[in-house]
């Protein structure tokens, strides 16, 4: 009997850890499961705060989908009122977000491409700095002076003018063919654009086309002389459809070159589009960072006539987006 009494406490002590372990296992298991939740599961637990609606949403849209979008943008860091109305505040934030990713036109419209990049931003795979996007302000009635004249994406048009007296500091003459021999200012471009033009011409040579450069940099004073002459001949309204007012010319940026062909006697007209050179440029200019700045069918946006010869340098990634989406620089920058 004494042996049995001694064994009983020993049995209880040996069994106790097993009992305690069995009691605590569900708590440990639950804790472990919480650690293994995916981001999507966490979002669901938190009330879908980070969920993104299906596209497309744009100005004037209302409802829960807009609220989801606004909530997600607040999570990214934008100061928005979750109103359910796709208002000017939402458009401004959307353009700011889009302009920070080179592959997104800053249209202010929420679409499938924007949704993909917002997912990356929410998951920490894409860094966004709210308010740091390069979104120009457009004023159709009066030109605003741009504050980034040296930027490769500077927008210069009838509502965005260059600062008074602006002259690019890095102008050089690209080593390409011109139909003249004089050392004129129109030979010149900014250094990066000039080297890109050289690459474009080399590729054109390999493709068997006979491309010529005709007119690059143009000073403010030169534009004054040209535009005045056109106004005297055709009137200001007509002249401004094919020529820029002084300060509003892309040629003054040093990022533009008009190109031509012997087949049209080195002229600058729409017949260039029908030449082998014109067709090749349209198909391949973006591969070297250039866009046809005033494309056919976009006159209502650019406010200028169709100019298949007018090439503008914007770098390869941006040029590719503009080319593939068949949009203008205004549309890409969200300046409409």
TrEMBL record:
InterPro entries: DD-CPase-like, Peptidoglycan-bd-like, PGBD-like_sf, PGBDSf, VanY-like_core_dom, VanY/YodJ_core_dom, Zn_M74/Hedgehog-like. Residues 62-118 form the Peptidoglycan binding-like domain. This is Carboxypeptidase. SUPFAM superfamilies: Hedgehog/DD-peptidase, PGBD-like. Coiled coil: none annotated. Residues 1-22 form the signal peptide. Keywords: Carboxypeptidase, Hydrolase, Protease, Signal. One of its GO terms (biological process) is proteolysis.
């Amino acid at each position: 009997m004494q042996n049995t009494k001694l064994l009983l406490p020993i049995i209880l002590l040996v069994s106790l850890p097993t009992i305690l372990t069995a009691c605590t296992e569900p708590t440990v298991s639950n804790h472990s499961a919480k650690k293994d939740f995916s981001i999507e599961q966490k979002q669901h637990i938190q009330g879908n705060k980070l969920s993104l609606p299906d596209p497309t949403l744009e100005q004037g849209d209302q409802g829960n989908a807009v609220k989801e979008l606004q909530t997600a943008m607040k999570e990214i860091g934008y100061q928005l009122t979750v109103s359910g109305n796709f208002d000017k505040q939402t458009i401004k934030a959307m353009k700011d977000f889009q302009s920070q990713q080179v592959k997104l036109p800053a249209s202010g419209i929420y679409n499938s491409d924007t949704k993909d990049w917002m997912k990356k931003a929410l998951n920490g795979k894409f860094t966004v700095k709210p308010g740091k996007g390069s979104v120009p302000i457009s004023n159709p009635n009066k030109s605003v002076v741009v504050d980034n004249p040296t930027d490769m994406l500077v927008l210069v048009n009838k509502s965005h003018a260059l600062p008074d007296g602006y002259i690019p500091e890095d102008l050089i003459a690209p080593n390409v063919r011109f139909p003249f021999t004089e050392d004129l200012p129109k030979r010149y471009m900014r250094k990066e654009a000039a080297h890109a033009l050289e690459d474009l011409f080399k590729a054109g040579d390999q493709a068997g086309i006979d491309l010529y450069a005709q007119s690059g940099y143009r000073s403010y004073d030169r534009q004054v002389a040209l535009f005045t002459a056109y106004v005297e001949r055709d009137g200001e309204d007509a002249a401004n459809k094919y020529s820029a007012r002084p300060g509003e010319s892309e040629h003054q940026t040093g990022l533009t070159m008009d190109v031509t062909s012997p087949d049209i006697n080195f002229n600058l007209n729409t017949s260039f589009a029908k030449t082998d050179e014109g067709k090749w440029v349209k198909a391949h200019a973006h591969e070297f960072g250039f866009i046809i700045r005033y494309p056919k069918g976009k006159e209502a946006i650019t406010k200028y006539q169709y100019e298949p010869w007018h090439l503008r340098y914007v770098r390869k990634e941006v040029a590719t987006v503009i080319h593939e989406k068949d949009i203008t620089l205004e549309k890409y920058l969200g300046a409409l």
